[in-house]
Design a protein that fits this description.
The chain is of the alpha/beta class. It contains 9 helices and 11 strands. α2 crosses α3 and α5 packs parallel to α7. About 17% of the residues have low confidence.
């Protein structure tokens, strides 16, 4: 299998040549002579012909109601996708991000979870800029990091420009087999200021959850109470890149795995930050790992600009503290407002 071509950020990406699919336009059959008898359809077929219509195969509905050219395009597109994967004729950037695989495979796998299972409602998507870099800062919860993935789908599917969100993930993500490769392919990278700044300066949307494991592994009794946001490293990164900060509040993720206990000894033996105990896990085995079908809301708040500060502002600790506190307070206030508006955890 050939290697994929790596496209650095500082080079213009060549336009990928689209695979054209010709549409064959059906020519209607000549009208029969006046004295000729109309053809008799074979038994079991409609009188209009074997395809159930006037004989025109292009655009005619099939037995299931789907139009045939659309089905042909899907099959041809899928075969072309497989050919490019086998021959290595696809692009990845220097972080390992595979845009085509993300669009056609990973998003397709996450979309049913987003639309049908969690029934995510997205608000304030217009607060995300149509182009250029921006840092999206969100609360973190749920025992497993499904909230970051749902936020990625929300940005891609609901933003008019179908923008891609590049998440900053913990080191543990890139130490796990299979998960490491999938995270890289989906555009995620290490949660370090260097990588984040390079992505922002390249005009990418970057997502960060400053609570880290303190947020995702907190007990159920502390749900929707934001943990400490660290030392404000995300603020200094946004200031250096001159990109806006977009606060994001996620409601619904806290209840998918109600964490009622933490087996700390077992967690140390396994080398993980925590070992969750929920009403269903580990008692029900693998079945206990199925998340509860809660109703989610993801709201993007008004952006906080950072381009008006001088370069030396990143060295001002008081400014870092104030901006960090402003982002945190806006997320927490929105969480409380969404919780008051919520009718039920599941509806």
């Amino acid at each position: 299998m050939a290697d994929a071509k790596v496209i650095p950020f500082d080079e213009d990406r060549p336009r990928r040549r689209a695979i054209g699919i010709r549409r064959v336009r059906a020519v209607p059959a000549p009208a029969p002579a006046p004295e000729a008898e109309a053809p008799v359809a074979p038994a079991g077929e409609p009188a209009g012909g074997a395809d159930g219509g006037s004989g025109a195969s292009g655009g005619q509905a099939g037995p299931g109601g789907a139009r045939r050219p659309d089905w042909d395009r899907r099959v041809a597109g899928g075969l072309a996708f497989l050919r490019r994967r086998i021959t290595g004729e696809y692009e990845v950037d220097e972080f390992g991000y595979d845009r085509e695989l993300t669009d056609q495979v990973l998003m397709s796998l996450l979309r049913p979870l987003f639309d049908k299972y969690f029934r995510v409602e997205v608000r304030g998507i217009e607060n995300i800029p149509a182009e250029g870099g921006a840092l999206i800062v969100a609360n973190h919860s749920g025992t497993l990091p499904l909230d970051g993935l749902m936020m990625q789908v929300a940005v891609h599917d609901h933003h008019p420009a179908q923008r891609h969100l590049r998440l900053l993930a913990a080191d543990l993500v890139f130490m796990l087999p299979v998960v490491n490769e999938l995270a890289r392919k989906a555009g995620h990278t290490l949660a370090c200021s260097e990588d984040a700044q390079r992505l922002l300066e390249a005009g990418e949307l970057v997502g960060v959850m400053p609570e880290g494991f303190k947020g995702i592994g907190k007990p159920f009794g502390d749900r929707y109470r934001l943990q400490r946001f660290g030392r404000g490293g995300f603020v200094s990164t946004a200031l250096r890149a001159g990109t806006p900060i977009v606060p994001c509040s996620i409601v619904g993720a806290e209840e998918i795995y109600p964490m009622v206990g933490n087996a700390k000894t077992l967690a140390r033996l396994l080398g993980v930050p925590y070992f969750p105990i929920t009403p269903t896990f580990p008692w029900l085995g693998p079945l206990g790992a199925v998340p509860l079908p809660t109703k989610w809301t993801i709201q993007f708040g008004e952006p906080i600009p950072t381009d008006g500060y001088p370069p030396e502002a990143v060295e001002d600790p008081m400014l870092m503290f104030n901006l960090t506190d402003e982002v945190r307070e806006q997320i927490q206030h929105t969480l409380y407002k969404l919780l008051v508006q919520r009718r039920s955890v599941f509806f």
